[in-house]
Known about the structure:
This protein has helices spanning 20-33, 41-45, 51-62, 73-86, 90-95, 102-127, 135-146, 161-169, 176-180, 184-194, 198-209, 213-222. It is an all-alpha fold. It binds a DNA duplex through α3 and α6. Residues 10-62, 63-117 form the HTH myb-type domain.
Amino acid sequence: MGRKPCCSKEEGLNRGAWTAIEDQILIDYINLHGEGKWRTLPKAAGLKRCGKSCRLRWLNYLRPDIKRGNITLDEEDLIIRLHNLLGNRWSLIAGRLPGRTDNEIKNYWHSVLSKRLLSSSQVKEANRNDDKINVIDAKLEHETALESESSDGSFTLPSSDEEINASFNFRMDFEIGEISNGSEGFASDFTQLCGYDFTDMNAEICEYGKYGKNDCCEAMVENDYVELEANNFNLDSDFGFLDAFS
DNA sequence: AAACCTTGCAACCGCAAGCGA
DNA sequence: CTCGCTTGCGGTTGCAAGGTT
């Protein structure tokens, strides 16, 4: 590779793809001594690798709880929503997807989702010029486009590109600032539709907002508020009102 | 069959945050 | 407070495999 080597101060270290033997040495060592102390781990384990490389290999590949490949539609849907909310905060997104690593999600985003969303954004932009629709109508339209109801009342996630694009055409068209200021009529309507209690959300904002915008956003993610079908949240613009807390 | 192109993904790099001395 | 070290994160690279011409 045409780049400066990792941990260039230390010579004689292996680089590039890991061998099965190296993997086994690392697994055995961590099973015995636990994670951490990456700087000293290679020497202690007898690996000719830098600590960074060992850490990365363990976290992204060797950990026993890692799921690999076959990202489900549910996971994909969650990745898209979290990315809309948090941007390129891959580690935070990965934290909401058990068994998935930040690297895998980042790769999936760049190789699959970003291309798909790029094409859907053109359709989305056209819809920005449409008249605003009220929340109830929007929700019904969204459900019609996104979900197909089966005989037992359950729903399925979108499977075709058309359906996924349709989900992106849906916009909440509301100011989240209104929620924080206690727009009770709106909140009760939306709570009824989505099953989320904006009273709790307000409390969450007040509690975590005082520590700063990022803490508040992360707290909201932790508490599943991102499950709202608000696909177009943006950390800086839509949560801008939280700046007042910082 | 061979050359070229595209895609997926593991791995590397630089930077910044956290933490202890 | 500052300095140095370690760890974690996001961006980027380059290899290998599969697809296309």
